[in-house]
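Z., the sequence and structure:
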Amino acid sequence: MTDPVDAAAPAKSVRSDESLKSLTKVSRVLDCFTTSRRSLSPAEICTKTGYPRSTTHRLLAAMREVGFIEQDRERDFYRLGLRLF
């Protein structure tokens, strides 16, 4: 019989790995912004990160939801959000 604690360890490790991958992706998006490039289009972010458009849009939507970035709706550009400061 398998110990329930041991059986849960691999699942917990997988979730931890996925969380780390997600945080790495968020970090790469944030690293795209510089003092000279404060506002970027999704296409520019795709180019800088190498992520597909779908991944980039999903990340931008999640980051906008928590306030890490803000969207200029008129021009479809993104900039760092106040929550980061």
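The chain has three helices and three strands. The chain has one domain: 4-84.

Let me know what you think.
H.
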